[in-house]
Amino acid sequence: MKIKNLTYGLAAAFGLIGPALFLRNINLSDWGMLIVELGFALWLVSPFVLVALAVRSERISSIGALIATILAGLFGAWFYTELTFHFTTKSDAQDAIAMLFVAAYQHAIIILTLGLFSFVGWLQGRRK
User: How many CA atoms lie within 13 A of 57 on its CB side?
Assistant: First the structure.
């Protein structure tokens, strides 16, 4: 299996975890909030759209994108399930805002990992 295809598949799988658990917890009977809720769901998918765009670019390492996807995906999967099912924590009013910050942390993980791999690749290319 190609690394790019594996990265796309993992990004799609990890990208669906956040919105699925987010939509599980909200009240969809209030039609006035539907646009906001869909916007939040798109925000939760956006880190993995970033990975898909990075993989599509030839300038980014495929291995780096795969590792960034795995790191951000596992972090998000653990955190989203913890916020939804409360295995080790108690439910409080900040769960909803914490779900939105998980995507920001995933963006940071992906950007830092891709930046590190790009820097290492640049250094290796310079040594040759």
Answer: 13
Compute the distance between CA of residue 11 and CA of residue 16 in angstroms, rounded to an integer. 9
| Predicted confidence (pLDDT) per residue in 82-108, tens digit | 888 877 777 777 777 888 899 999 999
Its pTM stands at 0.85
Among 14, 29, 9, residue whose Cα is nearest residue 109: 14
The one-character DSSP state at 93 is T
> Taking a C-beta distance cutoff of 8 angstroms, is the pair 112, 53 a contact?
no
Helix (H, G, I), strand (E, B), or coil: what is residue 21?
Answer: helix
Tokens standing for residue 119? 């820097």
* Distance of alpha carbon 111 from alpha carbon 66, whole angstroms: 13
The tokens 């769901």 sit on which residue? 41
Stated as kind and residue range, the H or E segment containing 28 is none
Give the tokens for residue 54.
């990075």
**Cα(92)–Cα(109) distance, integer angstroms:** 26
